[in-house]
Design a protein that fits this description.
The chain is of the alpha/beta class. It is about 35% helix and about 20% strand. The protein contains nine helices and eleven strands. The strands form two sheets. It has a six-stranded parallel sheet with strand order 3-2-1-4-5-6. The structure holds magnesium ion (MG) (3 copies).
Length: about 300
């Protein structure tokens, strides 16, 4: 049995990719496979699952001694417990290559596209496997989410080709679907400050040290004006309690493509020259952590 599992603090792509990849492994390869998740789904993912008529994957406790297929990451910091004692048999991902290594040859599909589900769509095509409506909705939802309705600089022609074909199979109105999905994506009402920081938090190694960078997507900065102070305090707490050299949160306005980068920690001084006010850097035309926020931070942190 192959356990197909996405990254920690799961976003829509890591949930949808796990579900779809498990089906692909069964249909295209005849393997036994099950999708798992490293945490509860967000309301955005719940919306996609509901549209697809699919249940959320079960929670993954440990993968020790199991065969594992990674979707949407290749970093050990984002992997489930027990990964050192697991056999990684495959990867579908669209991020820079992380630090996983394997003892046996593996199947790795890593493309510089906007979404892991875009790669999966092309794998279905490659293997001539029929795409069900449910899987079409899951893949389309993940692509719309990851590419911020095709507006992110991470979006490629392959994502657009996949989305067009998947829209036909899903039999939905793409514009309406994008509008609805962006509305749930940016709805942060009722969420606590620590859950907002955690929601899409990623831990990156830098030499011997670690930094964390989260991201929340909103439709207007009014939504967070009264939360910035508490968010800064929460980021500071992460550094004190968990020893991170920097903890940062990209607060991204998807309507204007402006990101406010909040940051705390010992390495804050390296960012000070770029700050417009204390512990905040304004980043124009910035929607993507992978292509914009994180590469910029890596350069500045040296
Ligand atoms: Mg992801
Ligand atoms: Mg992704
Ligand atoms: Mg993401």
């Amino acid at each position: 049995m192959i356990q197909v599992v996405g990254h920690t603090n799961p976003d829509s792509d890591s949930i949808c990719s796990a579900l779809v990849a498990a089906d692909w492994l069964k249909a295209a390869r005849g393997y036994e496979a099950v999708a798992l998740a490293q945490g509860e789904v967000t309301s955005e993912t719940a919306f996609i699952l509901e549209q697809a008529g699919v249940q959320a994957p079960a929670i993954c406790e440990s993968v020790a001694g199991q065969k594992v297929w990674l979707v949407d990451y290749t970093d050990l910091t984002q992997a489930p417990r027990g990964i050192e004692e697991a056999e990684i048999v495959g990867i579908v991902d669209h991020h820079r290559l992380g630090d996983v290594t394997t003892t046996n040859p593996l199947e790795a599909w890593i493309w510089p596209v906007g979404c892991s589900c875009t790669i999966l769509y092309h794998l279905f095509k490659m293997e001539n496997v029929e795409i069900t409506r449910a899987n079409a909705v899951l893949m389309l939802g993940a692509i719309v989410s990851d590419t911020v309705a095709f507006r992110s600089p991470t979006c490629t022609e392959k994502d657009r080709v996949a989305a067009e074909a998947l829209t036909d199979i899903a039999g939905i109105n793409l514009d309406a679907f994008c509008d609805q999905l962006m509305q749930v994506k940016t709805n942060i009402e009722g969420l606590s400050v620590d859950s907002l920081v955690d929601r899409d938090l990623k831990k990156y190694p830098m030499g011997e040290d670690f930094v964390v960078v989260g991201q929340i997507e909103i439709a207007s900065f009014d939504q967070v004006d009264d939360k910035v102070e508490a968010m800064q305090a929460e980021l500071k707490k992460r550094c004190t309690e968990e020893g991170f050299k920097l903890s940062a949160l990209m607060v991204t306005n998807i309507a204007t493509s402006v990101t406010k980068l909040l940051f705390q920690g010992e390495w804050s001084e390296k960012l000070a020259a770029h700050a417009s006010e204390a512990n905040i850097v304004m980043m124009e035309n910035t929607l993507s952590r992978k292509k914009q926020g994180w590469p910029w931070l890596q350069t500045v942190l040296g």
